[in-house]
Amino acid sequence: MTLNADEAARFAALLEENQDALVSAWTDRVTTSLRGRLSHAELQRQTSELRRGFQQALAGTAQGISDAAAAELRAQLSELSASRARQGFSATETAVSVFAFKEAVLATLDSSGRNDATTLRDYVAFSSFVDDAALFTFDSYVRVREELIADQAEQLLELSTPVVKLWEGVVAVPLVGTLDSARAQVVMERLLQTLVDTGSPYAIIDITGVPAVDTQVAQHILKTVVAARLMGADCIISGIRPQIAQTIVALGIEFGDIATKASLADALRYVLAQTGKKGR
Amino acid sequence: MNDQGERVEVTSDRDVVRVRQLVRTAAVAVKLSLVDQTKLVTAASELARNTLVYGGGGWVEVAPVDSGRRKGIRIVFADQGPGIADLDLALTDGYTTGGGLGLGLSGARRLVDEFDIATAVGEGTTITVTKWCR
């Protein structure tokens, strides 16, 4: 059921005449549903802007949320859902902010004593307009959240692969989490670059934080070790826990002549012994 | 006994991670030892990746099983891919057609207690593995 031009105009007038009562009733309802997590003044500002948005859309005889006349309203709703999504409100809490408008309008109709059949028909049409607006808000909320998640995933990729200098001539890569192809690539690039930058002859790859070492992870590690060797650096793999060791044996993965140690401390001790032997 | 079975569609690398997490949660729930958990998760990772890379995607179902005597986890990996022409060759250590280490299928078989593979050229592959609590 869409709003026809007459209905839209009638509601535009209603929203204009009763703006103060509407904004106050709407703000009260939203404040209750958000349980005081946003200040009353802030919500008052938001609802009064949204009321103006709705009023202008209806005055421009918008029959649905996707009409050109409702473009500004759409922008307002997108902004609202984006700010709610960033502040950590749930999708329901965000959509309720829009739905509460219907209750406020209903209360206004009641208090002005307009309860005939025409008003009811008008209200149902108006109600479906608000529903569409709320759905639109919901959609933009989801979109914003997805963007946030994608951003975080990217940040995580950057964050989770530091290369640290452990000792003079020794760098270490503490791997944490799942090592997929994308991360393995980042790790390899970082490690090789750090080897060049610091002129380190030793690199320790610590896999204490890797929950499972399957053939793909092993292959990524092996490739990194081979690449480091080509650059003249020796690699030691540390942090091999008992369950990982047994799994690697059962899988049949061979680390060949690559030195492996149970802990990072063992690996560092091994490297220092090696450098001591060479009498650097 | 598949009352609590959970199914995951495998269509991307991310789904392989989801399979791994699902298997780990299930393995912890039936109290597999830490070593067996790690073995099962690793086997699931290998087989799920095979489903994705060689089978062109499919689904994985993880379910707890109870033989009456002991508990365990059963995982089914199914795809509608090209199937495996020479199973013995595919199960040989070091044989690969995809540039990997060639240990995924054969290694996964060594990591679980029961390993059953049904495949036909052009009809896809279904692998069922079970790991029992010791």
Automatic annotation (TrEMBL), chain A:
SUPFAM superfamilies: SpoIIaa-like (SSF52091). Gene3D superfamilies: STAS domain. The keyword Isomerase does not apply. Residues 160-271 form the STAS domain. Keywords: Phosphoprotein. PANTHER family: RSBT ANTAGONIST PROTEIN RSBS-RELATED, RSBT CO-ANTAGONIST PROTEIN RSBRC. This is STAS domain-containing protein. It comes from Paractinoplanes ovalisporus.
From TrEMBL, chain B:
The keyword Nucleotide-binding applies. Pfam families: HATPase_c. Residues 35-134 form the Histidine kinase/HSP90-like ATPase domain. Keywords: ATP-binding, Nucleotide-binding. It comes from the Bacteria. One of its GO terms (molecular function) is ATP binding. Transmembrane segments: none annotated. This is ATP-binding protein. SUPFAM superfamilies: ATPase domain of HSP90 chaperone/DNA topoisomerase II/histidine kinase.
